[in-house]
Amino acid sequence: ETGVTQTPRHLVMGMTNKKSLKCEQHLGHNAMYWYKQSAKKPLELMFVYSLEERVENNSVPSRFSPECPNSSHLFLHLHTLQPEDSALYLCASSQSNTGELFFGEGSRLTVL
Amino acid sequence: AQSVTQPDIHITVSEGASLELRCNYSYGATPYLFWYVQSPGQGLQLLLKYFSGDTLVQGIKGFEAEFKRSQSSFNLRKPSVHWSDAAEYFCAVVGVSGTYKYIFGTGTRLKVLA
């Protein structure tokens, strides 16, 4: 596989469930990102990892918990979410902190 | 505050017509500038980027953009639109000092009439 791969593509969960989103990049990049995309709003940066260390945590509620076990994998653990958390969650990677972002196709999350 | 403004939420053009999508930014210093495109159900793909040098930048799929420092603008253009260009377009900036904080506009949705 090439590029940035996200799984699952679609996820429906109840407010009491625990689930995880997975992102994998095959580009050899050293930075990985989670963005939230909601209708009529700019992309919201949630977390950034550089060389497996978190370098940005954009005031995200604690019900979202990121994990970066190595430079190729990034997870977003979800628990006790709210309906307003329904959105498209995009993973991205970059070689540097100013270079082009490469995006995955996103995980569409619906919270019931 | 740092921000990116795309004043047009929706734009409709006829196939073969020219296109210009507007982007204005507010930033402490001139940032690096990007245009991305997102097709339905897909992630974002880079069209072009401006770091320095020639202010007219060529990208993929026949797109170009012009950086105008005096107007804090980075407008995207295409001379002749194809039906496959229907998508959402996002302008983005990031500081040259390197912060990982890419700032995106709200996007412009392009509809192409046959």
Task: Outline the fold blueprint.
The complex is a heterodimer of chains A (112) and B (114).
Chain A: E1 4-7, E2 10-13, E3 18-25, E4 31-37, E5 44-50, E6 53-57, E7 64-70, E8 73-79, E9 87-94, E10 102-103, E11 107-111
Parallel strand pairs in A: 2-11
Antiparallel strand pairs in A: 1-3, 3-8, 4-5, 4-9, 5-6, 7-8, 9-10, 9-11
Chain B: E1 3-5, E2 10-14, E3 19-21, E4 24-26, E5 32-38, E6 44-50, E7 56-58, E8 64-68, E9 73-78, E10 87-94, E11 103-104, E12 108-113
Parallel strand pairs in B: 2-12
Antiparallel strand pairs in B: 1-4, 3-9, 5-6, 5-10, 7-8, 8-9, 10-11, 10-12
Structure description:
The complex is a heterodimer of chains A (112) and B (114). Chain A is 0% helix and 57% strand. Chain A has 112 residues and is an all-beta fold. In chain A, the strands form two sheets. In chain A, strands 2, 4, 5, 6, 9, 10 and 11 form a seven-stranded mixed β-sheet that branches. Chain A has a four-stranded antiparallel β-sheet with strand order 1-3-8-7, with no helix packed on it. The radius of gyration of chain A is 13 Å and the shape is globular. Chain B has strands at 3-5, 10-14, 19-21, 24-26, 32-38, 44-50, 56-58, 64-68, 73-78, 87-94, 103-104, 108-113. The model of chain B has no long low-confidence stretch (mean pLDDT 94). In chain B, strands 2, 5, 6, 10, 11 and 12 form a six-stranded mixed β-sheet that branches. In chain B, strands 3-9-8-7 form a four-stranded antiparallel β-sheet, with no helix packed on it. Chain B starts with a strand and ends with a strand. The A-B interface holds A 4, 6, 31, 33, 40-43, 45, 48, 50, 55-56, 90, 92, 96-98, 100-106 and B 4, 9, 32, 34, 36, 41-46, 49, 90, 92, 94-96, 98-107.
